[in-house]
């Protein structure tokens, strides 16, 4: 339902897919879960799909939309010409996918640490290649939140353009991601405060400047 309200929820999709693959025994079960998600969208969009399907699909998602340079918060340190270049979009998409792959390895490793067993994408296997029997694949709430929040944050970092209201996408996840490792010392504490202060500074400067955008990206 959330996707029907704001498309940015799709940034959680890679993490959610990984969780489905980890907890379901087969691809069929994962496909059923995804079908339920898609089915909700079809039901909610039915009044529009049955009347103006082409217009609805084009405008509801509008993946080819060109963003306005004056509203961007995260790329003002680029010139407007460079901001509008298609190459930038392709580069960000590539980096987004690369970051998801790298983090997927981290997520799988973290799941193994928490559960004491390797959690695979389809079935859990022992090191000798035999399928582990009666092995419970329990994912902790902390792992689930970390996976979903990180998936969303990766999308934010490589977002084509961020506007001021987009801060509501993820402001509530930042403290959790900063404190998830449980480490407590002066240096880390100072870094966390600087990160929070930098993000707040960037979103409270209007219009955005090259400096505020650079601080946000860093």
From TrEMBL:
One GO CC annotation: endoplasmic reticulum membrane
Catalytic activity: an alpha-D-Man-(1->2)-alpha-D-Man-(1->2)-alpha-D-Man-(1->3)-[alpha-D-Man-(1->6)]-beta-D-Man-(1->4)-beta-D-GlcNAc-(1->4)-alpha-D-GlcNAc-diphospho-di-trans,poly-cis-dolichol + a di-trans,poly-cis-dolichyl beta-D-mannosyl phosphate = an alpha-D-Man-(1->2)-alpha-D-Man-(1->2)-alpha-D-Man-(1->3)-[alpha-D-Man-(1->3)-alpha-D-Man-(1->6)]-beta-D-Man-(1->4)-beta-D-GlcNAc-(1->4)-alpha-D-GlcNAc-diphospho-di-trans,poly-cis-dolichol + a di-trans,poly-cis-dolichyl phosphate + H(+)
Top-level lineage group: Eukaryota
Subcellular localization, as worded in the UniProt entry: Endoplasmic reticulum membrane
GO molecular function: dol-P-Man:Man(5)GlcNAc(2)-PP-Dol alpha-1,3-mannosyltransferase activity
Entry membrane topology: Multi-pass membrane protein
UniProt keyword list: Endoplasmic reticulum, Glycosyltransferase, Membrane, Transferase, Transmembrane, Transmembrane helix
Pathway info: Protein modification; protein glycosylation
EC number: 2.4.1.258
Segments traversing the membrane: 27-50, 88-108, 143-166
Position of the signal peptide: none
InterPro entries in the cross-refs: Glycosyltransferase_ALG3 (IPR007873)
Family annotation (PANTHER family): DOL-P-MAN:MAN(5)GLCNAC(2)-PP-DOL ALPHA-1,3-MANNOSYLTRANSFERASE, NOT56 - RELATED
The name this protein goes by in its record: dolichyl-P-Man:Man5GlcNAc2-PP-dolichol alpha-1,3-mannosyltransferase
